[in-house]
C-alpha cells in the first residue's frame, strides 16, 4: 500500500511537470491517440488464443437464442450482427449480466446479453447515455474549433438529466479569448462541426484503463489528471473509462452510445459565461439533440431550442487548490483574427 502511494505521488509529479508546458493541440491529440492505441493493443494481446464463450440473448423475440462468440474479441455489436440489420442499426447499448455495457467493448466471459434501444419500454439508461454522448461530441467540437494558437481546456462534463432541457460541456478557453462573445454565426459554426462528425458515423471506442495509463494520456492537462484520480477512487475496480472518437480521446463518467451517427437533430444553442474561477473564465456550452429514431417536427424543435438556450444550473463541485492553466501571451489586438476555424 505504501509503495502504491509513493508511485501515485511520483506519477502526479511527472504528469504535472508535463502539463506545465502544453504543446500544440495537434501534437497533444497525436500523443493521446498513440497511448490509447498502445494500451488497446496490449489488452487485445491478453487473448492470444481464440477461446469460445456462450452468449445467451435476451429481449423481444430473442429469448433462447444462443450465440457462440470469441472471448476478448467479440463485442455486443458483433452479437447484433449475427441477428438482423435492425439490431445492428438500432442498438445503442447493452446489458451484460445486468451491467451496462458499451456496444464496442469486448466480452470476456460467457454471459447473458440484452441489446438496448431508444424505443424500449424504459429508455432511461439509454437516454442518459445519449445525453452524455452528445456532451462528449460538443467537447470534441470545442477542442478543435479554435485556431491552434488558442488553448482549450475541457473540464469535467456535468452530469445533467435529459429533463434539464440541454446537455452541456464546461470549458476554459485561452485567456486571449476572454473578451470574445459567441455570435449566432459562431454557434452555427460549432453546430456544423458537430454535424460533420455525425455524418462520419464515428464509433465511440471504449477502453477501460488503470490510472497510470490515463495519467499518461492526459499528461498535458492538470484538470484531467485530477479527474482521473477522482474517478479511479470512486470506481469499484480502481479503473477509469476512456473513449476514442476519431482522433479525440476523452474521459467519461459513464457509458456512451455506439456511434455519432445515432445523433440526428443536433444544435449548439448557447455558450454562457460562468465567471472567473481558478482556471480562468469558465464557460458552459450547451446544446440540444434528438436521435435518428425520435425526430421532432420543426415547430416542436423550435420550442425545445428556446428552452435549451437558457443556462443549465449545475451544483458546483468543490475542489482543493485547483491548478492554473499555463500562462499565455495575449496578442496586440484580441480581435485581430476570428477565433473559430472554418467548418
From TrEMBL:
The lineage is: Eukaryota, Metazoa, Chordata, Craniata, Vertebrata
Keywords recorded for this protein, A-Z: Mitochondrion, Ribonucleoprotein, Ribosomal protein
Entry similarity comment: Belongs to the mitochondrion-specific ribosomal protein mL39 family.
What spans are recorded as compositionally biased (Low complexity)? 313-322
Question: PANTHER family of this UniProt entry?
Answer: LARGE RIBOSOMAL SUBUNIT PROTEIN ML39, MITOCHONDRIAL RIBOSOME PROTEIN L39/PROLYL-TRNA LIGASE FAMILY MEMBER
Its transmembrane ranges are none
Record region (Disordered): 312-343
Known InterPro entries for this protein? Beta-grasp_dom_sf, Pro-tRNA_synthetase, Thr/Ala-tRNA-synth_IIc_edit
Keyword Ribonucleoprotein attributed: yes
Residue ranges annotated as compositionally biased, kind Pro residues, are: 323-337
Record's subcellular location: Mitochondrion
Alphabetized GO MF terms: nucleotide binding; RNA binding
Q: What protein is this chain from?
A: Large ribosomal subunit protein mL39
Listed under GO cellular component are: mitochondrion; ribonucleoprotein complex; ribosome
> Which species does the entry assign this protein to?
Xyrichtys novacula (Pearly razorfish)
Amino acid at each position: 500500500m505504501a509503495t502504491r502511494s509513493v508511485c501515485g505521488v511520483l506519477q502526479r509529479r511527472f504528469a504535472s511537470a508535463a502539463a506545465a508546458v502544453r504543446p500544440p493541440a495537434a501534437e497533444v491529440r497525436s500523443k493521446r491517440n498513440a497511448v490509447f492505441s498502445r494500451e488497446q493493443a496490449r489488452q487485445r494481446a491478453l487473448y492470444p488464443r481464440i477461446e469460445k464463450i456462450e452468449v445467451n440473448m435476451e429481449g423481444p423475440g430473442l429469448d433462447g437464442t444462443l450465440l457462440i462468440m470469441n472471448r476478448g474479441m467479440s463485442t455486443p455489436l458483433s452479437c447484433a450482427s449475427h441477428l438482423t440489420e435492425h439490431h445492428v442499426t438500432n442498438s445503442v447499448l447493452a446489458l451484460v449480466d445486468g451491467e451496462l455495457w458499451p456496444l464496442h467493448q469486448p466480452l470476456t466471459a460467457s454471459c447473458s446479453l440484452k441489446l438496448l434501444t431508444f424505443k424500449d419500454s424504459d429508455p432511461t439508461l439509454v437516454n442518459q447515455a445519449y445525453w452524455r454522448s452528445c456532451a462528449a461530441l460538443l467537447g470534441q467540437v470545442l477542442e478543435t474549433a479554435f485556431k491552434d494558437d488558442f488553448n482549450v481546456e475541457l473540464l469535467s462534463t456535468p452530469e445533467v438529466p435529459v429533463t434539464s432541457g440541454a446537455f452541456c460541456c464546461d470549458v476554459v478557453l485561452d485567456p486571449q479569448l476572454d473578451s470574445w462573445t459567441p455570435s449566432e454565426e459562431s454557434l452555427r459554426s460549432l453546430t456544423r462541426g458537430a454535424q460533420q462528425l455525425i455524418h462520419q458515423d464515428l464509433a465511440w471506442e471504449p477502453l477501460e484503463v488503470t490510472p497510470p495509463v490515463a495519467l499518461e494520456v492526459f499528461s498535458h492537462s492538470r484538470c484531467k489528471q485530477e479527474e482521473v484520480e477522482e474517478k479511479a477512487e470512486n470506481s469499484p475496480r480502481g479503473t477509469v473509462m476512456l473513449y476514442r472518437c476519431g482522433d479525440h480521446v476523452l474521459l467519461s463518467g459513464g457509458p456512451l452510445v455506439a456511434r455519432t451517427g445515432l445523433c440526428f437533430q443536433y444544435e449548439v444553442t448557447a455558450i454562457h459565461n460562468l465567471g472567473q474561477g481558478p482556471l480562468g473564465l469558465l464557460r458552459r456550452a450547451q446544446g440540444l439533440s434528438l436521435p435518428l429514431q425520435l425526430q421532432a417536427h420543426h415547430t416542436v424543435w423550435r420550442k425545445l431550442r428556446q428552452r435549451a438556450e437558457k443556462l443549465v444550473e449545475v451544483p458546483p463541485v468543490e475542489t482543493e487548490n485547483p491548478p492554473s492553466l499555463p500562462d499565455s501571451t495575449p496578442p496586440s489586438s484580441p480581435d485581430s483574427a476570428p477565433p473559430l476555424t472554418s467548418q
